[in-house]
Amino acid sequence: MSEIIKVKNLTKKFGKNVALNSVNFTVNQGDFISIFGPNGAGKSTLLKLLSTQIRPTNGDIFFNGIKLSDLSSDFRRYFGVISHQPFLYENLSAYENLKFYGSLYGVENLEDRINTLLKNVELTGRKHDLVRNYSRGMLQRLSIARALIHDPEIIFLDEPYTGLDQHASNILTNILKNQFDNNKTILMITHNLQKGYELATKIMVLNKGDIVLLEEKELLPPSEFEDIYLSSVSAGVR
Ligand SMILES: Nc1ncnc2c1ncn2[C@@H]1O[C@H](COP(=O)(O)OP(=O)(O)OP(=O)(O)O)[C@@H](O)[C@H]1O
């Protein structure tokens, strides 16, 4: 298995507040890591560091063995980020939004890719509607398609199930299973214990900026996971 991400002594401080406290771990290609932890544990900070939205205070991140600081900005095409922000233009249609993002990334066979993604998120019939007329569920589904337009190798998700309606939730689960089957690497923050455990190959629990658990799911029965998670939640809120 090839090591796609390596994190060494990664630390992020906001003033005196240590959001992430010198963490070390590796991610192999094809891993699906679900990240759990109480509020303020450092989960979003970790994903923002990995997806280069913020810079570390100390420590290093390596992608495919190359230090982040030595990579050109072009490597961002290997990431897809699904978070609370949809990053969509409301005065453009779904098709135009995907065309815009796809062109930015220089996606080949863009028309086919757009059509496939719109089909996967069940928006084909609304392809030419302006996004400002979309319902919340439709927006959520389109933002999933937007994050995947360039077929990223690594997908970062920050609580993607929060606020999703059942339809969008089922679509997201199918898409994540499909991405996993295609050997994509997935790191997902979630408060949904059942969904996160079900989908993952590895489980991470953060607490007060430390990794208190990183284990293969196969080696971690659900009851043991729940015990560790619950004790971190009761001890963890800052
Ligand atoms: N931009 C920021 N400025 C100052 N402090 C921040 C900033 N972002 C995060 N923090 C602090 O860093 C710590 C970790 O926050 P983070 O958002 O990573 O936690 P989290 O585990 O994602 O929590 P939640 O589940 O509530 O989203 C918290 O104490 C938070 O207040």
Descriptive overview:
With 238 residues, this protein is an alpha/beta fold. The protein has a single domain, classed as Rossmann fold (3-Layer(aba) Sandwich). It is 34% helix and 27% strand. The protein contains 7 helices and 10 strands. The strands form 2 sheets. Strands 6-7-8-3-9-10 form a 6-stranded mixed sheet, sandwiched between helices. The chain has a 4-stranded antiparallel sheet with strand order 2-1-4-5, covered by helices on one side. The chain is globular. The N and C termini lie far apart (37 Å). The protein binds adenosine-5'-triphosphate. The site of adenosine-5'-triphosphate (ATP) has 12 residues, from strand 2 and helix 1. Adenosine-5'-triphosphate binds next to strand 2 and helix 1.
